[in-house]
Amino acid sequence: MTAIAEPRAPRTTARRSGPNLEKWGWIYMRVSGVLLIVLIFGHLFVNLMLGEGIHGIDFAFVAGKFASPFWQWWDALMLWLALIHGANGMRTIVNDYVTHQGTRRVLVWALWLAAAFLIVLGTLVVFTFDPCLGFDPETASGVITDICSAQG
After folding, report:
1. Do residues 132 and 147 lie in contact, with contact meaning Cβ atoms separated by under 8 Å?
2. Which helix (H) or strand (E) is 86 found in, with range?
3. Half-sphere exposure of 77 (CA within 13 A, CB side)
4. What contacts 24, CB < 8 A, 6 or more positions away?
5. pLDDT at 66 (0 to 100)
6. pLDDT tens column, 105-134
7. Torsion sign (Cα): 6, 7, 9, 12
8. Assigned CATH class of 24-151
C-alpha cells in the first residue's frame, strides 16, 4: 500500500531545473482567455450590432475592415490567441488522457504543427487580403468598384 505524504511535508524529490512550462501554460490560458473575451465580443459587436447588422456582412464589408491596420491587427491577435489557447487546451487533454509516452509526444507535436500552420495561413490572409485581385471594372458594381477604382 502506498502512503500519501502529508501536505506540508518537505519534498523528497528534487525539482527539475529550467522554466516551469506547465505554470506558464496555466497563466497563458487565464490571460489569453480574458483577452479573447474582449476581442471576440468587440468583433461580434462591430460585425453584428453596428451598421446594418448581419445583413451588412458581405465581401465589401470584409474588404473595408481589412483595409484598416487596426482591424487587421485586431483579427490577427484574436486568431493567434485563439489558436494557441485551443492548442494548449488540447495539449492538456492529451497529457491527461493519453498514457503511452510515444503516442502523447506525437499527438502534442501534431497539435502544435497544426496550430502553427493555421496561424501562418490565417496571418497571410489577414495581412495580404486584396479585394481588387482579379477586379474587372466592366463587370463589378457597388462598394468594391469604389474601393478598387480609388486604388488605380
Report:
1. yes
2. helix 69-97
3. 17
4. none
5. 85
6. 999 999 999 999 999 999 999 999 887 776
7. positive
8. mainly alpha
What's the first-to-final CA gap in the chain, in angstroms? 80
Quick check: 40 and 94 in contact, CB under 8 A?
A: no
What is the maximum span of the chain, computed from C-alpha positions, in angstroms?
A: 83
pLDDT, position 122: 95
The DSSP symbol for 16 reads P
Matching residue, cell 509526444: 105
Q: Mean pLDDT score of the chain, rounded to an integer?
A: 85
Contact 68, 5 (CB under 8 A): no
Contact by Cβ (8 Å): 90, 110: no
The answer to whether the CB of 36 falls within 8 A of the CB of 96 is no
Task: Decide: 46 and 78 in contact? Cβ < 8 Å.
Answer: no
Retrieve residue 32's grid coordinates.
489569453
> Are the beta carbons of 84 and 25 closer than 8 angstroms?
no
The residues near 12 (Cβ < 8 Å, ≥ 6 apart) are 5
- How many secondary structure helices (H) and strands (E) does the chain include? 5, 0
pLDDT of residue 109: 96
